Amino acid sequence: MGFSFFAYQPEFWCSDVPIDYQNKTEDMKCKKFVNSSELCTEWQYNRNDFHKSIITEFDLVCDRSNYASLTQSFYMLGYLVSGLILSFLPDKYGRRPLCWIYFLIEVISLIACALSVNIYQYIIFRLFVAIGGCGRTGTMCVTLMENMGPKHRSDIYLVGGMGWLVGYCLIPVMAYFIQDFRYMHWAVVCPLVCMICWLFFLNESPRWLITSGHTDKAERVLRQIVEQNGLNDENFDEKFAELKAHLHLSQQNEKTYTFFDLLRTPNLRKYSIVFCFSWLVIGLVYYGFSLNMADFGGNFYISFLMGGVVELPSSIIAILTLRYFGRKKSFFGFLTIISMASLAVIAANDTLLKVSFALIGKFAVGTVWWVVEVYVPELYPTLMRNCASGSSQAMARLGSTASPFMGDL
C-alpha cells in the first residue's frame, strides 16, 4: 500500500518556466516555455507535500507517466506468480525453509528498490518484492494454522486481518515524517529483519512432517509444544498414532482438483463464474480506491489514513451481517453500496462529499472482501475448497493488476 506515496504525483512544470510565473497552463507541463513546439526534457516539481517519489526521481511525467502505474501492476503480477505458480513449493519442500527463502527474496528486493538507478530496475525488483511478500505471508499463515487446533484458527485469522489494517494506518504516518521513497523502503526492511529473528523459534509444521514421512521429527516438535504449553504428556504415544493415521487416511483419499473441475457441473459452473468475476471486480475496486485516494481531493495524508481507519470495523461488521442477514444478502448489499458510492464520487462536485463517498466505497469493498472469503469456501465440496478459493482469489489479483491505471483515466 506504500506505493501511493512511492509514486506520489506532485504538480510539475517544464524547467524553463520561470518559478514566479503566474499564468501557468497545462501546455507548459510537457512542452517548453520558450518554444512550445519542442517537447520538455527537464522538469521542476512542487515538493511541498512529498519530497522525493519515483515520479520526481525518474521523471515519470508526460510520455513516461504510465511507468508509475506499470510499477504497481508488476507488483500485483508478482502476487499472481507467487500464488498460482510457486504455491506448491512449501508443500513439496516444507514450510520453514521456504519461509527463509521468501524472507530473503523480499529483503534483498526491497534494498534493490531503495538503491534503484532507473525505473526499469525499480519495476523488476518490485515484482520480486511481491513474490517474496506473498510467498512469505502465505507460508507463514499455513504454518501457524497447522501448528494449532481448529478451536483457535478463526481467532488467528481475525487477528491477522487486524494486523493488515493497523499497518495500513501506519503508512501515512511514516510517509509524513520520511517523505522519501528510498528511505521508506529502508524503513520497511527494518521490521522484516526483526521478523527473520522470529524464524529461529519457528518449528516446522508437524502435519507436514508426518505427511512427508518425517515422523520422528514431528514427534520431537509435538513433544516440545506439549512441554512449552505445560500440558500433560500422558497418552502422547496413543494420540500421536491417531494423528498419523488420520493424516495418512486424508492423504490417501485426497484427489488433486483443478480449475476445470469447477466447471464440470451446472451448479459448480454457475458459482465459479459468478465468484471469479466478483473477485476480479473486488480486487479492481479495492486497490482502485486505495491507490488513488489523492485523486478525490483533500489532504492526501489524512485521506489515506481515513481509508485505513474506515476498514477497522469491517471485519466486525462482516461477522454481524453474515450472522443476521446471511451470506447472499450481505454479499449483494455491500456490492450495491460500492456501486452507489462509486457513482456518487463521479457526481459530487464538493471535495468533502467526494472524499466521503470514496471512504464509504472503501469501507464497503473492505467488508465485502471478508464476506466473500467466508462465502466462497462454504459453497464448494471439501476436496474442491482449496482449489475454488485459490482460483477465485487469483482473479482478484488480475483485477488489482489493472487498478493502478484507474488513476490515469
From TrEMBL:
Keyword set includes Transmembrane helix: yes
GO CC, any one term: membrane
Query: Per the annotation, which location comes first and is thus the protein's main one?
Result: membrane
Q: Identify the domain of life.
A: Eukaryota
Indicate whether Membrane appears among the record's keywords.
yes
Q: InterPro entries attached here?
A: MFS_dom, MFS_sugar_transport-like, MFS_trans_sf
Q: Name one Pfam family in it.
A: Sugar_tr
Q: Which residues form the Major facilitator superfamily (MFS) profile domain?
A: 1-409
Which chain regions cross the lipid bilayer?
73-90, 97-117, 123-144, 156-177, 183-202, 271-289, 301-324, 331-349
Alphabetical UniProt keywords: Membrane, Transmembrane, Transmembrane helix
Topology within the bilayer: Multi-pass membrane protein
- GO MF annotations for this entry? transmembrane transporter activity
Q: Where in the cell is it found?
A: Membrane
Q: Which PANTHER family match?
A: SOLUTE CARRIER FAMILY 22 MEMBER
- Name the record gives this protein: Major facilitator superfamily (MFS) profile domain-containing protein
Native source species: Medioppia subpectinata
